[in-house]
Every structure is written in C-alpha cells, then in structure tokens.
Amino acid sequence: LAFGEDLTDALLRAMTFMIVASPCAVVLATMPPLLSAIANAGRHGVLVKSAVAMERLGEIDAAALDKTGTLTEGTPEVTAVRPLPGSGLDEDALLALAAAAEHPSEHPLARAVVAAAHARGLPLAPVTDFTAVPGRGVTAAVEGAVVTVGRAEAAEAADGGTVVRVTRDGTPVGTLTLTDRLRHDAPAAASALASLTGTAPVLLTGDNAHTAARVATATGLTDIRSGLLPEDKVNAVRDLQAAGRKVLFVGDGVNDAPALAAAHAGIAMGRAGSDLALETADAVVVRDELAAVPAVVRLSRTARRLVLQNLVIAGTAITGLVLWDLLGHLPLPLGVAGHEGSTVLVGLNGLRLLRESAWRSGQPQHR
C-alpha cells in the first residue's frame, strides 16, 4: 500500500506471505521421525519413554555395561556351598541360613540363593529387621542371630563365579559361589556398540576381578572395572563424561539405578530388571535381548538424520516461497499448495521410520 499498490492485490500478497511464512513444516520436522522411531522400537520390544529420550540415544559416543543381568542372563545358580570349619554348619544349614536372610530381597543373586534352598527342600526361618545395602548385601535377624550375606572382598572362585560371604553375629560361617551364563548375543551386541560409538564398551561391575575378566574375555571387552559399588559406577560414568563423552549405560539392578540416572542415556534390561532401574532408565528392553540396545541406538540416529533432512526441506521451501512472494508475484493458490505440500512432505518423510528396520542383520526380529 505504501508503494501505491492496489488494496486487493496488497491484501492477497499479504495473505500469501502469511501462509508461506508459517513454520508448520518446521514444527512437523521433528516429531514424526521421533514418534515413528518410538513406535518402531516398541514393536520390537524396546519401550522408549519419550521423544527426548529417543533423541538422546542417538547422541551417545561411549557405552558402559553392567555384568549381571546385562551381559549375562541374570539367572545365576548356586554352584558351591562351603561352610567354614568350626562354624557348626553343614552345607544345608549354611544355605538355609543365607536363603532366609536373602528371602525378602529382589536381587538376582538373592533369588538364586532362595531357589537353591527350595530345590533342596530346606525350610526357611522367618526374618526381622531386614536391611539391603545396594552393592554390599543384606542383613537380617534370623532366629535371634544377625545374619549378613554380602560381597566377599578378596575371595575368588576358581571357575569365575560370584562369591558371597555369610556371617552370623559378625563371624564368617561360610561362602556361596554362584555362576551365571553369558547371553548368546552379548559379543555381537558389544561389537555393534563399539562400531556405533567408535570405542569398545566399558564393563562396570560389582563382581570380583576374576569373574569380570572371564565375562569380558568372552564378550571381547578390554576396559574392565570390577569390585564397584553403586557410587563407583556413577563416578566411572561421570569420569567418561568429564572426558567429553556422551555415555550410554546399560544395566538392570538397584545397584545400576544411580548410574542410569547419571548417564547421558540409560537403558534397562526389563525381564529381570528392578523396579528402580526400570523407572530410572530412558528406555527398557522388554524382550531381554541385548542386541536390541545397538539396534535402538541405530534407529535413533536414523531418526535424527530424518529430522535434519526435514529441517532442510522445510527451511528451503519456506525461504523459496517467501522470496518468491516478496520479489515477484506468487499466486495465492500456488503459495497454499507449496506450504501444504512441504508440510505433508516432511510428515511423510518422518513416517518412513515406521517401516525402517534397524533390527535386521543380526538384530532382534519381531516374534
């Protein structure tokens, strides 16, 4: 109007400008890829809690893995019961004592001890004053005695098992050895994570060095940090992040919850995972397949690439249409078609992830 243009023409150009400058395509560039990736992951047994979590999974450049329930199946079995001389206990009495103290606990090792006692038909005495300290063990009053079942600081099993010490009223009375099977897909998953991040994953475990080394060797890991308490795992994650890495932590137990919270992104193994770990993690692997971890990271990176593609498409379309309208004469119908077309295009581009299969080539398949 200021340059003397006809009112009707000026209004049409203004309407066209408002339409083509509307950032609908930019707004739609982000959510369809991320939500499609969440839906795709969900169909394959990985529950990602939010679009932000899905995006963060694609940013990681380092990985740290727990051992029990993550690299291993999380179903340990008692393989040796060793009463100490002078304790006055035989194998059955020692196992029954430990199982009674462990009975209220949800830790995989505790469940294994209780299962071993049940398998032998041993009765479990009632307990009171039960206390569990993550990474250290449990304490309970059993038949008037204070029984502690916890980590054996220096003991190592010859077969690479996990050793726990049983004490009664502060006096050691024996040890139990438990072993757990390595997941069949652990070596492939560790290798895939190394390819995605450019560095081999770090093994963080509360187990003794001998057990950790056995699992690490079978998995192909070289950076092993054993004998860690929950706070030590957090410190290890923070040390990696202080070095400029964005860390993915994968775990399943109460001991792992602080590290899951401290990491840039956290994934919990869901089948035997503790409630605290499942609540803290950004994503949960429901089907108990470790290979799903690198698959969902790969899916997240594909989603991030599509977001970038969409932003380029949206920005190019909006800039071109706006310049056309300001410098030339963009017909209103063509402006509407260009605006809506670019919006639909970025939406459809994002929805491609509904069919994207990051789960092929050795990754978990839909069952």
Offer a quick outline of the entry.
This protein has a seven-stranded mixed beta sheet with strand order 1-13-12-11-2-9-10, with helices on both faces. It has a six-stranded antiparallel beta sheet with strand order 3-8-7-6-5-4, with helices on one face.
Strand percentage = 15-25%
CATH superfamily of the domain at 46-73 and 182-286: HAD superfamily/HAD-like
Question: What gross morphology would you assign?
Answer: elongated
Mean pLDDT: 87
Number of helices: 14
Strand order of the largest sheet: 1-13-12-11-2-9-10
Termini Cα gap: 65 Å
Structural class: alpha/beta
Rg: 28 Å
**Percent in helix:** 40-55%
Largest beta-sheet details = 7 strands, mixed
Order of helices and strands: HHHEHEHEHHEEEEEHEHEHEHEHEHH
CATH fold annotation of the domain at 46-73 and 182-286? Rossmann fold
What is the number of beta strands? 13
CATH architecture of the domain at 46-73 and 182-286: 3-Layer(aba) Sandwich
Low-confidence parts: 361-367
| CATH structural class of the domain at 46-73 and 182-286 | Alpha Beta
